[in-house]
Structures are given as C-alpha cells and as structure tokens.
Amino acid sequence: MEGLDSLANGLKDLLPDFGKAVAIDCTPVSTYSNPDNEAVSDPEAGWMVREVPPRKQWEFDYRLRLIVDAKWELLIAKVVALAGDSEKKATIPLLQKAKDSLTWFKPNAVIADKAYDKYDHHEFIAKDFDAEPIIKHVKHPDYELTGLPAAPICTAGLPMIYRSRDAKKGLQYQCPHKAGRAICPLTD
Fold it and tell me: Do 93 and 67 form a contact (C-beta atoms < 8 A)?
C-alpha cells in the first residue's frame, strides 16, 4: 500500500483541496474460481448479491473498498475484502487506515450511499474527522447528530441537527429546540 500512499501524498501536494470531500463505496472484483466444483480453487472468494435492475444478481467474487476524492475522482485508499463482509463492518477500519497512513487526511465531508447508513459511521465521521457525514438514510433513522462542523447555526446560536439529505433540497437540518434536544434561549 506504500505505492498508493506515496501517490496520494503527491496528489495532495499538487491539488490543494484534494481529499476535502471524499466518497466511499465498494465494487465487486471477479474471480475466475468456479464455485460449482467440489474443490473450489479460490476458497476465500464468496457469494455477493448485486442489485442490477430489474432484479438481484448473485456473483462469486471479492469486494474492493475505495475512498475516492469526490471532486477529482482520484483514489485515496483501498482495501480488498471478502465478498461476505458488509459495508457496515468495513467502513470505520477503512477510514481509520486512511487516517493513520496519510497524515493530511482530514476530509470536510464523507459521502456514501444507504448501505453505509449506521449510527456508528455518522458518529465516527463527525467526531473523529470533524467532518460532515453525507449518507443517505434508510427510511426513518432513529438517531440524530448535533453539532456537526458544517451544520448551520440557528438564530439562537445553537447548532442545527442533521436529519437527512434530500435530492432536490440538499442537506436537511432541524431546530434543536423543536427536536427536544436543547432549550432555546429565545423562547421568551
């Protein structure tokens, strides 16, 4: 991984805003092993479901997990994982690996799809990176995050609560007083 780290460090020197907005996702990496044989030639590969509209498709492969700069579309960090490992297990270790190996890696925003929607991910991104988690919520979340670095401040000086991201309206925030998370000093 030293080669990728030195490449990312070189890109950081050339592109001043490199790594400020990053996206996380995974993609299947095919294996030529035949899982139907009695003796599978690649026992570490596994089955993975991929949603290919209009149906789901089963594939026998690995997963390549990536952190990519969202503006420049350039790779920052990667990990090859077993197909059965879910995004929810691998996200924090992938971000931590990038943070440990790249001293400058301090994104302002981390973008991910709904497969990464887990309270621990939101909290890790907000608290350990002081960054905005932009992760599509799965239906109705039962958690709230307050005091995110990029959260707007209400007229009373309280940080708004991040709720979701709407495709047409953008990031959605809620008044902390209305959410029952703070007492508004302007209620009088």
Answer: no
Domain containing residue 167:
144-188
CATH number for 50: 3.90.350.10
pTM value is 0.67
Task: Identify whether residues 154 and 167 lie together within a single domain.
Answer: yes
Give residue 100's Cα distance to chain centre: 17
Closest CA to 97 of 117, 80, 120: 80
CA dist list (Å): 184 to 147, 156, 173:
15, 7, 16
For the segment 128-148, what is each residue's pLDDT rounded down to a tens digit? 888 888 887 776 555 555 555
What is the pLDDT at residue 156? 83
- 3-state SS string over the chain? CHHHHHHHHHHHHHCCCCCCEEEEEEEEEECCCCCCCCCCCCCCCEEEEEEECCEEEEEEEEEEEEEEECCCCCEEEEEEEECCCCHHHHHHHHHHHHHHHCCCCCCCEEEECHHHCCHHHHHHHHHHCCCEEEECCCCCCCCCEECCCCCCECCCCCECEEEEEECCCEEEEECCCCCCCCCCCCCC
